[in-house]
């Protein structure tokens, strides 16, 4: 019969050995544990600094910013890490801006920790000096350095003063193996176009500076080697500028403001022409050049009357450097270290001649550029950097 019960019971199957043994909950790893957060805060700050601080400045906004090799992903690990590391990113890195609006927009779009920025670089073109001077001297909460960078401690301003050439280079670019003819003609056209737009005082000062560099060109191979004398005093260069100014302007100019310097001074007489006029009207009472040279450098302040830096400062005053320094007097924090580097480009042969003539003032760096030591101008450290460029084969 098919439905009859079995004679004997079916043997039970053995228990399976593939089942997972129960694990106690207290033995599971703690997902909230972190080796980084287990370190003391002082060591964590060193880790943050090593991972998030770059030796290169962050140029904003710029698509060509070099790789900084920083681990910004560390900021997204946890809220605690972000809270501890974000201030270090802004406080210990350097930031570079080329326009005042960029600096203001960065404050708006960046993290609130951006108020911890302490080191900033500004790159200023000479035509934008007035725009930057307004921004640096403003107290407007919506657009001013004082409110955009409240904790600023180090400010470097790189003022690009343009490209120049000595009269020998400008006039003989084609004949002496310099620039090609089309490029030389274009360069002369640019100089002429700029000359028509600049005030007369500025044109005079530019001529005087070019005469100074021309003197360096001649002295490097002539008088300097034969007589071992210092270059001609800058006041003598200004005498030619004074004569040109009297021919072009036969009217009296306004005297300097009686209450001192202003942020936006009126058009005063050229300082070069004034010095030359005093030199002509008064007998020379200065000590011999050797004694004056020794005494000027003994004080350590660099007020060398015949120096290349002094010659440049008299010319650059009309171009806005003085206005830039004065704009920082009332707005910068007391503890802020401000340095301005004025960059002038010259043909490399002319740069080498200047270094030979003004060996006491110009020092070459590893890139072949020359720079003077910093001098105080209205409470700001100012240096002149002469960068050389090749003029062609």
TrEMBL record:
InterPro entries registered for this protein in UniProt: AN11006-like (IPR038883)
Annotated Low complexity bias: 244-255, 276-289
Compositionally biased residues, Basic residues: 290-303
Span list, region Disordered: 244-303
Domain of life of the source: Eukaryota
Protein name as annotated: Uncharacterized protein
Native species: Karstenula rhodostoma CBS 690.94
């Amino acid at each position: 019969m098919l439905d009859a019960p079995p004679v004997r019971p079916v043997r039970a199957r053995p228990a399976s050995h593939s089942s997972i043994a129960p694990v106690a909950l207290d033995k599971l790893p703690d997902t909230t544990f972190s080796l980084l957060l287990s370190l003391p805060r002082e060591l964590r700050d060193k880790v943050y600094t090593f991972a998030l601080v770059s030796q290169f400045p962050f140029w904003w906004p710029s698509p060509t910013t070099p790789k900084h090799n920083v681990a910004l992903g560390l900021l997204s690990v946890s809220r605690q890490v972000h809270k501890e590391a974000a201030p270090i990113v802004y406080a210990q890195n350097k930031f570079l801006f080329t326009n005042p609006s960029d600096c203001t927009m960065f404050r708006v779009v960046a993290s609130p920790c951006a108020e911890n920025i302490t080191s900033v670089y500004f790159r200023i073109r000479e035509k934008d000096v007035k725009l930057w001077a307004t921004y640096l001297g403003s107290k407007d909460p919506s657009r001013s350095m004082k409110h955009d960078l409240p904790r600023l401690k180090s400010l470097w301003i790189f003022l690009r003063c343009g490209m120049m050439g000595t009269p020998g280079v400008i006039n003989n670019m084609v004949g002496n193996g310099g620039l090609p003819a089309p490029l030389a003609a274009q360069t002369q056209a640019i100089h002429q176009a700029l000359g028509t737009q600049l005030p007369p005082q500025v044109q005079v000062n530019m001529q005087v500076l070019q005469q100074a560099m021309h003197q360096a060109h001649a002295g490097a191979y002539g008088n300097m080697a034969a007589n071992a004398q210092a270059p001609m005093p800058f006041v003598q260069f200004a005498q030619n500028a004074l004569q040109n100014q009297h021919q072009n302007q036969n009217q009296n100019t306004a005297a300097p403001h009686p209450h001192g310097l202003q942020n936006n001074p009126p058009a005063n007489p050229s300082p070069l022409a004034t010095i030359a006029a005093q030199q002509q009207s008064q007998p020379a009472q200065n000590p011999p050049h050797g004694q004056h040279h020794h005494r000027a450098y003994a004080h350590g302040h660099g007020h060398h009357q015949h120096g290349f830096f002094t010659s440049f400062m008299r010319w650059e005053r009309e171009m806005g450097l003085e206005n830039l320094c004065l704009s920082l007097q009332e707005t910068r924090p007391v503890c802020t270290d401000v340095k301005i580097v004025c960059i002038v480009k010259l043909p490399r042969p002319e740069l080498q001649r200047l270094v030979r003539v003004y060996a006491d003032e110009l020092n070459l760096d590893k890139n072949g550029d020359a720079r003077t030591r910093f001098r105080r101008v209205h409470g700001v450290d100012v240096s002149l950097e002469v960068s050389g460029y090749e003029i062609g084969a």
